[in-house]
Each structure stands twice: as structure tokens, then as C-alpha cells.
Amino acid sequence: MEKFPEISLSALTKDPKDIARPKDEPTLLYNAMIHPITQFTIKGVIWYQGESNLYDAQRATVLGEYGGIGLVLKEHLWEPNRNWGYVQFSTSKEATDEYLKYANMLKDMIARGFSAAVYTQTTDVEIEVNGLMTYDRKVIKLDEQKLKRANTEICESLK
User: Fold this and answer.
1) Sign (positive/negative) of CA torsion 15, 18, 23, 25?
2) Please, what is the angle between helix 144-157 and helix 92-111, to 10°?
3) pLDDT digits (tens, 9 = 90+) for 106-134
4) Which of 56, 79, 88, 104 would bridge 70 by S-S if both were Cys, CB 3.0 to 4.6 A apart?
5) pLDDT digits (tens, 9 = 90+) for 58-105
6) Rounded CA gap, 64 and 41, in Å?
7) What is the pTM of this model?
8) CB neighbour list of residue 19: distance below 8 Å, 6 or more residues apart
9) Torsion of CA 7, 139, 118, 154, to 10 degrees
């Protein structure tokens, strides 16, 4: 299988508004995450919110998306009058507490056979304010030390 042409990773360090994104340009996600594993046979299941097939001992069970914790920081928005998150909070403390609640739920899921989870999302993306960091990458919106401790506990519980 042929992979798409490379996209410069240095573009990721720029302000997202300055990055040219032609509609016919392939994504970095395919090159970095999908293409390297196309040669392997994959046996597993990705579980999305609302599905009931939670565990199969013959397959890896993955929570395909969780999080979506919205926190608006007015000086760091793509469009100040239009933004969106699955759930909205007013302070960093409230948003951090919600993240920690989800982290505890993940630890319980590991005991039932889950082996991975995908957080939505690392940064705000245009009108979506679900990110751990703001759109312009200037502010980490949640308490970084508390998240690090929670994530370390999750990783340790997988051993």
C-alpha cells in the first residue's frame, strides 16, 4: 500500500490559523498512525460511547473516545462567539475534577478487561473547546500535575 506524501511536522508548532490546509491534502494522521500498521493483521474491537459489546476475552477492548470536557478561555478562541464542547465548565478546577472522575471510571474499566482509551481531545480545534490546551497552544486548561498523577495510576494499573 502506498503512503501519502509527508506533511511537515514543523507546521504543528505554528499557530493553527497560520497553517495552510488545502482540502485535497492528505492528513498527517494517516501517515503517522495508520500507514505503519497496514501490513499487520489486526484483531480487536474499538468501543464507542453507547455500544454494549464491552468485553470479549479474545480481543483488545478499547474505549474509542472519552472526555470532551469543554472550558472556554475567551482570549484563546478560534471564534469568540461560537464554541462547543460535550460538557461545559466554567473553571479549570471544575474541568480538572471532571477529568479525574473519568480517570477513576477508566481504572474500573481496566479491571473489566479494557486495555486502552482515546481522550477527546488534546487541544481545542476551531470551535471545539474540548481540548486540554487552548486552540493557540498557549494555555494548558486543566491542572497538569493532577492529570499526570491520574494518568500514571491508569498506566500502572494496566501492568
Assistant:
1) negative
2) 0
3) 888 888 788 888 888 889 888 899 999 99
4) 88
5) 777 788 888 889 999 999 988 888 888 888 999 999 999 999 999 999
6) 19
7) 0.66
8) 11
9) 130
